[in-house]
Amino acid sequence: MLRSSATPDFLDSAHEWRRLFAETWGTFLLVVVAAGAGVVGAQSGGAITLSMKVIAPGMMVMAIIYFMGAVGGAHLNPAVTLAFAARRNFPWRRVPGYIGAQLVGSIAAAGVLRTMFGAIGLLGATTPSPGVSDLKAFAMEVLLTTGLVSTILGTASGARNIGSNGALAVGGYIALAGLWAAPVSGASMNPVRSFAPDLIRGNLMTTWIYVVGPVLGAIIAVGFEWILKGKATDAGTLAAQGNT
Hints:
Radius of gyration: 17 Å
Number of helices: 10
């Protein structure tokens, strides 16, 4: 069952550098679009609307899944990587490398935006909207990420986001979540997407919301997946092959 859904390249440790490059490049593209929409919106005096800002990352994720999901799985998000590992679809020993690649890609994207445009538009940071408490923004991030990770776990092949089902479902969910929830918390759902702009602009006051919230949402989604489908049936095989 697993062997038909996981290509040898995804399991072969000799190709881990290729998968890590894919995660770095994919996360760079996601963050440069997600944060860049806010930066360019501020630089252009509002030429980019809220709808454009939230749809763009969804479309970018869709494109990334199509062009490199088969290589590295297109996790692009530490919460997603942790969820795949907790679901036992992904070996824990590979988690640090994936999260490290995601951090490098996101920080590089924020650095490029800072170099090109300066520190305008909060570098596209996600922060609670005026009048929204940190606790409410935190609860929103937990809720949104639970839905995102449920969508991913329900459409992924093993630990990979691949094919039209995954691309359309995940990209569409990201856009939909942003359309209704971005005015509350920014609809990040991704620790590195929020951490990188905060780090480069030197303000980590609300970063905890966008790190703890998505991780907690991912854990809840893994629990829901167990309720819906029981324990993963191909997990042991993937873990074993991924450690060879």
